[in-house]
């Protein structure tokens, strides 16, 4: 199997990198905090000291970093020079479509193909390879990297064509819909509780019948259990970053999104209160506060 570069082993990147190592790939890993990737070294991965060192001539590098600035910071001339013609950079990060479009042009100028493949999965789902990938970019490059996505985290892959930013648009839509669903459930279960209906019964009835999807089932349980803080797998700050990107994209395309503005405000309030270790499910605390309920 070929050698793969992997940049960014945070909460989500770590299980994906681990899956690739266990699948038999030789994986060269760069993580800004080297210590967090040390267990992967014990599994057989090779840790390197720069993003460029994770690449090989004509090879594939996958990156999964926190935001646009981090993605731009690792997309250096040095990285592109090492990859060179025939090389592929797969960006699995949730970033602005505009950033992906600009980076695609930069990569193209040095003969490197840029594919966007943001991850739809929380860490446990990625570890179990039950995630979903949406991909956009050059056709040949997408075909080459599909086995890596399947080995790393994906149960399903959805192809959105060659426009580099398209996959990022869909990822932002998905994250908006999750955040809006958290708000919806927080308001609904608050209404149940205020009217002496057991919210756990409401949750069981609704998420096993009318709203049986994994978002309602999994995030609904977190809302019911008031599981808002403590070792978040997707922090409130990242959720706010994504809602900012949603609204940025909406403004650019003149798309009114009042619900996105509401969940953005909820997350801003959580961060303003400096809630310790807040998962983005903590946005539900706003609806509970408004209803005079404790958590």
UniProtKB/TrEMBL annotation:
Residues 3-158 form the 6-phosphogluconate dehydrogenase NADP-binding domain. The active site is at residue 171. Keywords: NAD, Oxidoreductase. It comes from the Bacteria. InterPro entries: 6-PGluconate_DH-like_C_sf (IPR008927), 6PGD_dom2 (IPR013328), 6PGDH_NADP-bd (IPR006115), HIBADH-like_NADP-bd (IPR029154), HIBADH-related (IPR015815), HIBADH-related_NP60_sf (IPR051265), NAD(P)-bd_dom_sf (IPR036291). Residues 165-283 form the 3-hydroxyisobutyrate dehydrogenase-like NAD-binding domain. GO terms for molecular function: NAD binding; NADP binding; oxidoreductase activity. It holds the Pfam family NAD_binding_11. This is 3-hydroxyisobutyrate dehydrogenase-like beta-hydroxyacid dehydrogenase. It comes from Chitinophaga polysaccharea.
